[in-house]
Amino acid sequence: MAWIILFFAGLLEIVWAYAMKLSDGFSRPVPTVVTILAMFLSFGLLAAAMKSLPLGTAYTVWTGIGAVGAFVVGVAVLGEAASPMRILAALLIVGGLVLMKLSSPT
Asked: What is the pTM of this model?
């Protein structure tokens, strides 16, 4: 169950990162509120997952989901560059996440 909670915490990290971009430096109220709410929920779920997952594993997977997800949203939604080097970097992060999961005792 902790892994499912952690997965949703990571998805919410993507939401708050995207909403933060849309908030234009917190000058737009709706994206600002979405950012704050998604942050709160993401951190809460991360804390719940950390009850049974090791700190290093939980935090690494959480940030990795957020980083790769934000990269995908940036490319797919915001039209950011998808150069071979950036794609390789994202794939290396995913590889690291898989290794963290496989090496976790829980």
From this structure: 0.89
Distance in angstroms (rounded) separating the CA atoms of residues 4 and 22: 27
Mean residue pLDDT of the chain comes to: 95
* Domain ranges (residues) in the chain: 2-103
Comparing CA positions, the residue from 57, 92, 74 lying closest to residue 14 is 74
Per-residue pLDDT of 34-91, as tens digits, reads 999 999 999 999 999 999 999 999 999 999 999 999 999 999 999 999 999 999 999 9
3 state DSSP class of 105: coil
Q: Rounded to an integer, what distance in angstroms lies between the CA atom of residue 32 and that of residue 30?
A: 5
Integer-rounded Cα Rg, in Å, for the chain is: 15
* Structure token pair of residue 75: 């490319």
Residues 42 and 2 sit within 8 Å (Cβ to Cβ) = no
- Distance (Å, rounded) from C-alpha 4 to C-alpha 36? 22
